[in-house]
């Protein structure tokens, strides 16, 4: 029998259950995948707590990599034995195997292992759209990156250097600062001890930065706004500390006619051609060694509750995966 992590009520990590599930045969446009590795993402906790609503009972997880074992009617472009990775709906990646629509699947080059794929597909594609789609960044620009030692942060730091950008990164500890620096972060700000906006102004000659990448949310929002240059862009792409506060439009004017966006990865990979382009650029950098994917935590799938406690407790760095 296949197994999966499921939850029947929202709440803390203890609501997660390891259950036997019946997978069945793939239907039209679907394939059955045996997972080799599953990604652990902070967004998974939003579904578990109910911040992102899901019909209950529900599976969990949106990112994994593995091998296609069976192909349903009408499927083109994929065959039994293909190595694939994915990020996206429906929920249910926390499983040993599952049936999946082909719309979210990406063929995985032989040069990239399953664990690496599970650790980077969501984070890597997020980094790709942040740096390559959301703002016309150019060599010489400086950006502020919150959670610089996180999974997305370490990829963004490396990719930013390839683009000639200067990165100011916020972290919570000396250990995380060292990790961020080792991946290309130029300047470190300890956001729990320093005034982020004041420090950014010091580092930029009083101008601020054209773009802030903020995955933390509530606790960093004010500092992020205060760090922007005139007509700068605040990219709120995560809410690890809670949702951002209500936005007062007049405050955007007072901070220099700045902009705020709350993007979702799904809207940047909805078009198959664009998804393939972003994935191709990401895979090319990783396969060539220009971007290193740090897997600093590995868990068994049945130990999902502990993994969530570590994630929410700030005890993880880089990427985390479940290994099957």
Automatic annotation (TrEMBL):
Entry keywords, A to Z: NADP, Oxidoreductase
InterPro entries, sorted: ADH-like_C, ADH-like_N, ER, GroES-like_sf, NAD(P)-bd_dom_sf, QOR-like, Quin_OxRdtase/zeta-crystal_CS
CDD domains: QOR2
PROSITE patterns registered for this protein in UniProt: QOR_ZETA_CRYSTAL
Entry keyword Oxidoreductase: yes
Domain (Enoyl reductase (ER)): residue spans on this chain: 11-322
Name recorded for this polypeptide: Quinone oxidoreductase
GO molecular function: mRNA 3'-UTR AU-rich region binding; NADPH binding; quinone reductase (NADPH) activity; zinc ion binding
Source organism: Kitasatospora camelliae
Superkingdom as given in the UniProt entry: Bacteria
Record's GO cellular component terms: cytosol
């Amino acid at each position: 029998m296949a197994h999966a992590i499921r939850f029947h009520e929202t709440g803390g990590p203890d609501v997660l259950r390891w259950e036997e599930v019946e997978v069945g045969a793939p239907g039209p446009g679907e394939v059955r995948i045996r997972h080799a590795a599953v990604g652990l993402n902070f967004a998974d906790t939003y579904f578990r707590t109910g911040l992102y609503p899901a019909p209950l009972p529900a599976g969990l997880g949106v990112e994994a990599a593995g091998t296609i074992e069976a192909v349903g009617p009408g499927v083109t472009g994929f065959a039994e034995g293909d190595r694939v990775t994915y990020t996206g709906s429906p929920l249910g990646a926390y499983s040993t195997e599952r049936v999946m629509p082909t719309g979210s699947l990406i063929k995985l080059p032989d040069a990239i292992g399953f664990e690496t794929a599970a650790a980077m597909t969501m984070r890597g594609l997020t980094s790709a759209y942040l740096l390559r789609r959301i703002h016309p960044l150019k060599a010489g620009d400086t950006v502020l990156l919150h959670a610089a030692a996180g999974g997305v942060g370490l990829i963004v730091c490396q990719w930013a250097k390839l683009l000639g950008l200067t990165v100011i990164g916020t972290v919570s500890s000396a250990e995380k600062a060292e990790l961020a620096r080792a991946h290309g972060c130029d300047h470190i700000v300890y956001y729990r001890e320093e005034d982020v906006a004041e420090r950014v102004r010091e580092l930029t000659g009083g101008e601020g930065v054209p773009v802030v990448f903020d995955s933390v949310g509530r606790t960093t929002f004010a500092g992020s706004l205060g760090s922007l240059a005139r007509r700068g862009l605040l990219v709120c792409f995560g809410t690890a500390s809670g949702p951002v506060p209500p936005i007062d439009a007049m405050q955007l004017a007072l901070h220099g006619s700045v902009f705020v966006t709350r993007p979702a990865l799904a809207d940047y990979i909805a078009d198959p051609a664009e998804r393939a382009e972003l994935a191709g650029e990401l895979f090319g950098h990783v396969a060539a060694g220009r971007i290193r994917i740090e897997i600093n935590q590995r868990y068994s799938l049945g130990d999902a509750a502990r993994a969530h406690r570590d994630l929410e407790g700030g005890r993880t760095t880089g990427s985390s995966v479940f290994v099957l």
